[in-house]
Design brief:
Largest sheet: 6 strands, parallel
Structural class: alpha/beta
Order of helices and strands: HEEEHEHEHHHHEHEHE
Distance between the termini: 27 Å
Shape: globular
Number of strands: 8
Length: 254
């Protein structure tokens, strides 16, 4: 939606993003000063200091919503990939396509190549967790993420083929956020430490991922609930997840 308030043509969003990534890679891997003359960006004196400690560069992850172009770009470049705010089934399909494309391009995707994200609230009982966490998660989706669909897709932002596919599937139509939907098709779990750990371990195994971004302070959650959730998760859930996951998928909590 930033394209609505900036004088930038959304038709070139992908080209602009990829050029930005090329600049980043040049800055991280080529001792300066160096020059970059692109279609969208020009730098006469690109000289970052100091260069990153990780060699040849820090691990890079591309985050998307499941478009084939983004999945293929990450896979072809050998970057990691993550997907947000889309149903689990669609994510798993994208992850499968990512691994196949990365392998075809000579890369070796592993359990750290994919990052999944989840919302969790931990309490003494499942009923208590739902009582204390449900409303804040619903507030996040119903209020903080609420936009009209046309704002997310300004003219030219989606490739024609992709836009046609979305229109034919009805994906651009407004849908009502329900609790049943959030807990059945998205990674949302509320419960005891055992329940939360078992669900997260299952998601990691299902996605073949050892990295997970956790949303533990969600929406309008007050401070005391956030502290309680963080503390219980750190002390009670993480050890359980490590015990439940196999050695191949040991979770590195982000």
């Amino acid at each position: 939606m930033e394209y609505w308030v900036n004088p930038i043509n959304p038709s070139f969003s992908r080209e602009r993003f990829r050029e930005g990534m090329d600049i980043l890679m040049q800055a991280w891997t080529q001792p300066g000063p160096s020059r970059y003359d692109g279609e969208f960006y020009q730098y006469k004196y690109l000289n970052p200091f100091p260069l990153p400690y990780q060699k040849p560069h820090p691990k890079i992850y591309i985050v998307g919503s499941g478009t084939e172009e983004t999945v293929n770009y990450a896979a072809e470049k050998g970057y990691g990939y993550s997907q947000v705010f889309t149903p689990i089934a669609a994510q798993l399909k994208s992850f499968e396509n990512y691994r196949a494309t990365a392998t075809r391009n000579g890369h070796k995707p592993d359990s750290e190549s994919i990052i999944i994200s989840a919302m969790a609230f931990v309490a003494e009982t499942e009923e208590k967790a739902i009582e204390e966490g449900k409303d804040h998660i619903l507030f996040y989706f119903k209020n903080l993420l609420k936009t009209d669909s046309h704002l997310n897709s300004p003219p030219g932002y989606l490739p024609v083929a992709r836009l046609r596919k979305r229109l034919e599937s009805g994906a651009i139509q407004e849908t009502e956020v329900t609790w049943e939907g959030l807990t059945s098709v998205y990674r949302t779990v509320l419960g005891t430490p055992d329940q939360v750990a078992e669900r997260i371990a299952f998601w990691c195994e299902q996605a073949q991922s050892s990295k997970i971004i956790l949303h533990l302070h969600v929406g309008d959650m007050p401070h005391w609930k956030a502290v309680k959730n963080l503390t219980l998760f750190a002390e009670e859930v993480i050890p359980r997840v490590r015990n439940l996951t196999s050695s191949v998928f040991q979770v590195a909590a982000e």
